[in-house]
Amino acid sequence: MKTLSTEAFLNKASSMLLFKTLGLAEIKRIMSVARTALYDPGEKIINKGEVSPFLFLVLEGCVNVAVPQADGEPVFISTIGEGDVFGEAGIFLKVARTADVVACDSATLLEISRNDLIGFIRANPEAGIKILMLIIYSLLKKLKDANQELAFERKADISQSDIDSIVDDVMGDKG
Question: What pTM, to 2 d.p., does this model score?
């Protein structure tokens, strides 16, 4: 795995929502506890079921999120692009990952572990609070999107009365 240069990282990170409210010195400090990694197209970043304490930020490229099924066919969930974070649960909980994440093209990611993020927050509480608030914002946005998708699916479902009406029409029962 290759790594991104310091200058390239600073250029990317300073324009990302997660770091936009931080000063250059704070970004350099977070960089000192994080790592950047380059992934090739199709390279797996997260395996469903693994327990991992990392948060990821897409600096370049994109990743696909999919849930593998028993038949081996993955169900596509979403594409996460430049500036977006994923794996937030890994910094808050020690739980198994719920999906596979694979680079959809060449992807450069910032990876930070739970312990390193906690250490950063302790040493830089003001910057740490800003980062935590943006992580929470990201989680709430994902929850809102999931809720809207569920609501759309429910609305698209045919109701029992519609089914009864169709059956009655086909069977010739107009009652």
Answer: 0.78
